[in-house]
Amino acid sequence: PPKKRVLVPIADGTEEIEAVTVIDVLRRAGAEVVVASCEDGRKEVVCSRGVRIVADVLVKDIAGRGTPNDWDLIAVPGGMPGAERIADHVKLHAVLEKHFRAGKLMAAICAAPAIVFEPKGFLEGFAATAHPAFVDELGGSLQDKMQHANARVVVDHSVITSRGPGTSMEWALCLVEQLYGVEHAKAIAKPMVVQPANSRLRTKLEWRLDEAPSPPPKA
């Protein structure tokens, strides 16, 4: 079967954990992931914490007539001001709009659902989530869908949204499932030692966030 083609736009100020996680996990799954820089004439972007990522192409290389812009999925990482720079890129907007109108898979995480998808109308009528600092800006979602806003990953038809760096692994694996099915997603997750949703009891020397250590043994 033909490879699934995925576009990941990045810019100065993109959240690097979210960007690298989705690129890495989808490539592990077998997808052809194309990373596109939204910076004019510059493939290298400086992410929100100073990590430098070199994109595969510039947005202009995948936008406009005669360019290879038929994607199975477009996944937009968050981070500020990266999400704003992605949202404001005129040529990328045309690519996003065409993809959305075709009803294809679209994904955004952290600030991107509120900053990129919401103003463009991509969340109108869809349940969605975003980073806690931005989730109140998801006004385009129907009120009866707002109950889903606190979920870590929300899948509503072709729109998949998530909350932040800490949920980026789940978001990426969800995208693998959307493209390839649940068994392939589980197969990709296993060698990465992803923490299962239902964890076994914690052992005495094992660290977990938000889980109290075992009491010391009585003398």
How would you portray this structure in words?
Helix 1 packs parallel to helix 6 and helix 6 (168-180) crosses helix 7 (182-189). The model has no long low-confidence stretch (mean pLDDT 91). The protein is globular, with a radius of gyration of 18 Å. It has 219 residues and is an alpha/beta fold. It contains 7 helices and 9 strands. Strand 8 (153-156) and strand 9 form a beta hairpin. Helix content is 29%, strand content 17%. It has helices at residues 16-28, 59-62, 82-88, 90-101, 112-117, 168-180, 182-189, and strands spanning 5-10, 32-37, 44-46, 52-54, 57-58, 73-76, 105-109, 153-156, 159-162. Strands 5-2-1-6-7-9-8 form a 7-stranded mixed beta sheet, with helices on both faces. Strands 3-4 form a two-stranded antiparallel ribbon. 45% of the residues are buried.
